[in-house]
Amino acid sequence: AVVVAPGQRSTMAVADRGAVGVVLDDFTTPILSPRWGLRSGGGAEVNFRRAVDPDGTGWLAITSQLTSDGWFWLGQVGPAQDWSGFSGIDLTLVGAGSGATYTLELIDGSAAVNERLAVAFRDDQPGRRRLEMKWKDFRHCPYNEPSAPDNGLQTRAIYGFGIMRNDGDVSASCAMRFERIELIGLRSGGCA
User: Fold this and answer.
1) What is the CA radius of gyration of the chain?
2) Which end is more exposed in the chain, N or C (fewer Cβ atoms within 10 Å of the end residue's Cβ)?
3) How many angstroms separate the CA atoms of 173 and 150, rounded?
4) 37: Cα within 13 Å, side-chain hemisphere
């Protein structure tokens, strides 16, 4: 696995913030990294765009409409990185108060053998907010392959991360704007 250290640019990252954390994406470049990909199914209608405001704030807007079986996953994969020097991940987002449930998913392992772990968050209030998700909050996903490990988040080989929505209970079109995704909580001693 690639070791991601404070002050070092991650192979998934587009920027960094020194000793505070590692920014995985702050959306300030006009084009999504080729590592970003979208998967969807079950009749999901998904649109996303990336832009930079005149003040320099970058963002990724996702608009989605799901049927009861609909879902989407928008994220980055590979190569595996060692995130064990951090205690969690932070999202800065602008919600619409739609009531939709989103999931931040991590892929722990490799392309061949991995465990998907996730933590859900609801768009329950309009406006900007930060969500800090600690590693201990991530849970084994029920849709993992039957052969997938079930040993909890290890963080030594994170193969990918993404934003997912699969809550067909909200039928209206839902929009969410992400401004920053960052590794947080540098542990003493830095990365192993």
Assistant:
1) 16
2) C
3) 34
4) 8
Burial class, 180, CB count within 10 angstroms (exposed 0-12 / middle 13-18 / buried 19+): buried
3-state secondary structure of 135: helix
- Report how far Cα 40 is from the mean position of its chain's Cα atoms: 16
Could you tell me the end-to-end alpha-carbon distance of the chain, in angstroms, rounded to an integer?
Answer: 11
90-129: pLDDT as tens digits: 999 999 998 889 999 999 999 889 999 999 999 999 999 9
Which stretches of 120-164 are DSSP H helices? Answer: none
Give the span between the Cα atoms of 62 and 53, in whole angstroms: 16
Note whether 158 and 183 are within 8 A (CB).
Answer: no
Low-confidence spans in the chain with pLDDT less than 70: 1-20, 30-34, 168-172, 187-192
- Cα–Cα distances in angstroms (integers) from residue 24 to residues 9, 11, 89, 171, in the given order: 9, 9, 9, 31
What is the distance between the alpha carbons of residues 101 and 92, in angstroms, rounded to a whole number? 16
State the sign of the Cα–Cα–Cα–Cα dihedral 116, 188, 129, 179: negative
Q: Do residues 123 and 35 lie in contact, with contact meaning Cβ atoms separated by under 8 Å?
A: no
Distance (Å, whole) CA 126 – CA 96: 4
Q: What's residue 68's pLDDT?
A: 80
CA angle 97–101–104, rounded 5-degree value: 115
